[in-house]
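Our collaborator T.R. sent over the components below with a one-line note: 'Predict the complex.' Nothing else. No constraints on interfaces, no templates requested, no preferences about which chain binds where. So this is a plain run: every listed entity goes in together, and whatever single assembly comes back becomes the starting point for the next discussion.
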Amino acid sequence: MSEPVVSVTEFRKVYGDFVAVDGIDFAVQQGEIFGLLGPNGAGKTTTLECLEGLRQPDGGSLRVAGVDPTKEPQKLRNVIGVQLQSSGLPETITADEAMKFFCAYHGVKPRYDLLERLGLAEKRKAQFYELSTGQQRRLALALAVAHEPQVLFFDEPTAGLDVASRVELHELMREQQAKGTTIILATHDMAEAEEMSDRVAILLSGKIATVGSPMEITATGANLTKVSVRSEGSSLLRNGHTIPAVSQSTVKNQYAIYFSTDIGRTVGAVINTIETEGDSLIDLRVERPSLEDRFLEITKTGDVS
Amino acid sequence: MTAFTNHFSFEFRTGVRNKTLLLMNYLFPLGFYLMMGFVMTEINPTFQEIIIPSMIVFAILAATLLGLPDPLVNARESGIFRSYRINGVPSASILFIPALTTMLHLILVSIIIVFTAPLLFDAPTPSNWLNFVLVFLAMSFASAGLGVLIGVISPNSRTTVLYSQIIFIPSMLLGGLMLPYSMLPDVAGKISQLLPATQAMNAFNGMAMGQETSFSSGGSLLLLVFSGILAFGLANYLFSWDSQNTARRGHPALALLVLLPYALGLFLLA
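Returned assembly:
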C-alpha cells in the first residue's frame, strides 16, 4: 500500500483539564473520502483544526500530504483546501473578488471558470451576504479547490442545504475524488457519510470507537435486521403470535416492526401467521442496519474498541 | 504584490460599501464639519482659525477609533480570520491593510475639508503645507494604530465601543478641537496631553497653521509617530486568529503601553 496522504498517530489534544482527543490513530490514502463521525464534543472539529494547522496538538504526530501542519504552516496552505463555514467570508466581498483574493494569496490565477461551473455565473458580482446558503457553500467549495489542493477538508458541508444543492455538492465531491484529491469529511449526517465515504472513523469522547468502510462497520454491530410488516386486518398487531428469531418488536403507524437475528425464519413466520389468520399482506420491508443504527448503538453503549 | 494589491483594493471598496464604514469614513466627519462650520463659527468666531485642523482631527478620530476596530472584532468572531489563515493571508496584512485604506479615505475627506473650508467659512489655509501633510500622516498613523490595537484586544463589539469611546470622548472635549489647549485648566491640560488628538492639534497649530503653542509642536509630531509604531507593534504582537483559540502572545493589558510616549511627553515636552 502506498504512503498515506493523511496520517494521524497518537494524536492528543487537551483544553485545560478536558481531554478533547485522546491518542487517536488513522491514515487516509490518496483519493479516499474519509468520514469523521461522532456526537458533539467527540473531537471531530479539534482533529480537523489541528490537521488544518489552526491549533497545535499536545501530543502525537500529524502529516498532511507530506507536510507537518505544526511546523510547516506555509507549505500546508498550498496542499490543503478547506470548505469555509457560511460566515467565513466578509459580507461585502463579491464572488469574483473572493476568487481573486484567495487565489492571489495562493499564488495562482483566479479560477473564474469554477464559479461558472458551480452555477454562480449570474452571481459573480453579488456580495457574499446577497447569496443564498447554497450559493455561499458553492462559492466556498470553488475557493477551496481553486488552487488544486491535494487534501480537502469539509466540516458539515451540506448542513442547511436543500436536496438539490446537496446532491450537486456530493457530485462535486465525487469529481474531486476522481481527480485523486483526498477528502476528509466531518459530518453529523449519517446518510451522507454512508453514501459518500469510502471509510469512516467514529469518534467517541476523544477516542476512535471504530474505523472501516460503512459496510464493515454496520456488519460488526448487533446485526439485527429490521422487518416491517403491514397487513389488511392488522392480524400481527394482536397479541398471541410468537415470531421466531426476534430480539425486539414494536408497533408504529399500523406496522409491526421486528428486529430479527435470522431474517429467513422471521419473514417466513410472519407470512405464515398472516395466511393462518386469513389476513392479507399490504407491505413488507426488510432493512439492513444502517450506519446510523450502528452509530447510535456505539454511542449508546460507549463501545470504544 | 498582487495579493497585497487585491487585498488593498477590496478593503478600500469595503470602506464605501459597508454602511457603517461609509458613515464613519465620510458621512459623519463631513456632516459634523458642515454643522460645526455653520454653527460654531457663529458662536465662537475664533473657531474659524482652527476649523481645518480641528475637523481633520475629528475625521481621523471617527474613521480610526469608531470605524476601524469593530470590523476587526467581527471578522475574528465570525471566523473570517480563520479562513484567512487557512488561505495564507498574513496577520500583518489583516492589520495594516485596513489601516492604510482608512488613511486613503481620510486623505479624500481632508482634501474636501481643506478646499471647502476657506470658501464656506473663510477659514485660513495652512501656512506650511508640507508640515500640514506630515502632521496629518502622523496623526492618521497614530490613531489608526490605536484603532487596530483596540480591534485586536477587544473581546466583543460591546467592549469595542467602550474602549473606543474612552479615547474618543475625552479627545473631543479636551483635545483642542473645540477649545484651545491654553484655555484648559492645568490638570485637564496635563490629562489631555495623553491623547493623540491634543498632540495632533498642537502639531498642526505650531507647525502648519503658524500659531503659537503651549508646548513643542515638533515634539508632538514625534510622539505621534512613536505612538503609532508602538500601537502597530503591540497589535501585531497581541493578534489572535480566533476568539476560541486562547493562545495569545501577551496579556491584552499590554496595550496600555501605547500611552507610554504620551506619558513621557508630559515630562519631556515644554
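Summary for T.R.: Residues 227 and 286 of chain A are 5 Å apart (CA to CA).
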